[in-house]
Q: What sequence folds into this?
């Protein structure tokens, strides 16, 4: 039986051979429910298992790796198996699901399973479970070795990225002992990534060296961190419904938040905050908002903001951007009609379970019409799209309230906003067109607008008397839809400090060029290849 070290150390990533650190405010043992070997027969049972897995990870986070108690403690359970045994049982259970005959020619056919006539890709679940098990039993160096096998340039890329983070933060520091002197052997450049493989000894040495880089960030901190979630700090899953946060990911993010952020950490996502499932439609765990998918508990300094920033969760309550009753009623009517159409038409049922699924957000609704694996035919996808477009036209014939954005995979039905021009814009408009008075313009709500709402809610910058030095804010994302957050933060911060934009390319090589163009240059921008590189950097900086 696998033994897991339950002795918490100080909040750090210096974890070898299963010796783990703790960093939360909740400690002590507690009752947990073992997940035993079993068989999954349908989608309901599949999502129920995922819900149990999430609860187990939550228990591990609260009562084990994030304990603030400085003494040994153990788990209380009616079962004689360890938490890792339960994780392994889930892993075995997923791997033994019936294979999909429709994906035999797929290079990753082992990840494709068939439940209730629907093809589902479990690659994300399997890989994140394997990482968690390695993290729990062998520690961070072994976890970094997995990252390196997936990305041969991992060690060099992290070292390179840390040097940029250090340069950005140290420019605001009066501490003379902030020179960054990495001694890691691999070299990395954004254009020519090192592709050579390393043996186990080199991998272990590189992992240990990366962890030692924490010393260069002891006195360097960001004021605020604003970030997207999926594709940025969380690896992409095949569908939103299974995008539960892994334990190692939660640990790295919590470590960074507690040790490297002076004010707030804010996750801004287009997903809803809380999205209760429809009765008689889907199981509870297939729905859920960003709070329910995550392990990092919301606090007065770790804030979740959903629906592109229209809503945020703070002090156990949800605060929302005001929306006119008429607009709100139109979107609620659309959601009701769409839900009825999906439940009453067997051809539409599948769209709830592919890609982003069906997400009712505040001021916006997302419905998948395809996923990255093309799980539905082009004809079905186009037919579903036309049905939704017709539904929107019937509800809003003049297109004054609803805007449809087609990403190719998702249909985003978004409430428009009335954007007033400022005084400077008004003067320019008057000179150019001879018009007077303020003018309202309807536009799609983006994350920049959401960040402005959070800024005005005093969540971005803490005003302090006698503060020395400039403010330092980091904004991270993985698509062009995240760029407005960088632009807006720089605009609102003005000359009071600097904003570092960090973008995860995720194989999208054209993203870098688009981001540079939208931000007006490369200054204070960092590009990394995948979420694990960014998360590793966060954990190391937080130590």
A:
């Amino acid at each position: 039986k696998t033994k897991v070290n339950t002795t918490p150390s100080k909040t750090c990533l210096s974890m070898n051979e299963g010796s783990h650190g703790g960093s939360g405010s909740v400690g002590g043992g507690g009752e947990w429910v073992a997940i035993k070997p079993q068989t999954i027969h349908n989608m309901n049972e599949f999502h129920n298992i995922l819900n149990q897995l999430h609860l187990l990870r939550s228990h591990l986070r609260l009562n084990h790796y994030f304990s603030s108690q400085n003494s040994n403690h153990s788990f209380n359970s009616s079962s004689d198996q360890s938490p890792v045994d339960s994780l392994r049982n889930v892993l075995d259970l997923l791997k033994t699901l019936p294979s999909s005959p429709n994906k035999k020619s797929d290079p990753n056919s082992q990840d494709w399973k068939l439940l209730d006539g629907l093809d589902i890709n479990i690659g994300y679940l399997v890989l994140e479970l394997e990482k968690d098990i390695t993290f729990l039993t062998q520690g961070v160096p072994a976890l970094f070795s997995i990252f390196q096998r997936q990305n041969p340039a991992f060690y060099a890329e992290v070292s390179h990225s840390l040097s940029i983070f250090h340069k950005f933060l140290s420019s605001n520091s009066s501490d003379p002992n902030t020179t960054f002197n990495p001694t890691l052997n691999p070299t990395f450049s954004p254009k020519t990534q090192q592709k050579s493989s390393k043996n186990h000894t080199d991998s272990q040495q590189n992992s240990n060296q990366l962890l030692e880089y924490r010393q260069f960030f002891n006195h360097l901190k960001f004021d605020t961190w604003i970030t997207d979630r999926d594709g940025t700090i969380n690896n992409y899953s095949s569908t939103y419904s299974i995008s539960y946060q892994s334990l190692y990911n939660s640990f790295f993010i919590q470590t960074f938040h507690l040790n490297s952020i002076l004010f707030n950490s804010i996750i801004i996502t287009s997903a809803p905050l809380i999205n209760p499932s429809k009765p008689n439609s889907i199981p509870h765990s297939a729905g859920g908002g960003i709070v329910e998918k995550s392990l990092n508990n919301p606090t007065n300094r770790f804030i979740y903001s959903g629906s592109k920033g229209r809503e945020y969760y703070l002090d156990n309550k949800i605060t929302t951007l005001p929306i006119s009753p008429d607009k709100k009623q139109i979107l609620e009517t659309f959601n009701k009609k769409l839900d009825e159409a999906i439940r009453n038409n067997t051809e539409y049922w599948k769209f709830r379970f592919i890609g982003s699924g069906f997400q009712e957000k505040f001021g916006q609704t997302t419905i998948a019409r395809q996923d990255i694996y093309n799980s539905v035919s082009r004809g079905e996808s186009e037919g579903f799209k036309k049905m939704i477009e017709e539904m929107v036209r019937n509800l809003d014939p003049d297109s004054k309230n609803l805007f449809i954005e087609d990403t190719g995979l998702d249909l985003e039905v978004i409430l428009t906003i009335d954007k007033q021009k400022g005084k400077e814009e008004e003067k320019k408009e008057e000179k150019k067109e001879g018009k007077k008075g303020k003018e309202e313009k309807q536009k799609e709500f983006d994350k920049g607008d959401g960040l402005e709402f959070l800024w005005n809610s005093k969540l971005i910058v803490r005003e302090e008397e006698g503060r020395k030095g400039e403010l330092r804010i980091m904004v991270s994302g993985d698509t062009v839809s995240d760029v407005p957050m960088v632009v807006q933060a720089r605009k609102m911060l003005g000359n009071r400090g600097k904003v570092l934009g960090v973008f995860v390319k995720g194989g999208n090589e054209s993203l870098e060029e688009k981001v540079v163009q939208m931000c007006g240059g490369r200054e204070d921008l960092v590009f990394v290849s995948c979420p694990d590189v960014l998360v590793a950097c966060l954990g190391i900086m937080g130590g």
The mean pLDDT is 81.
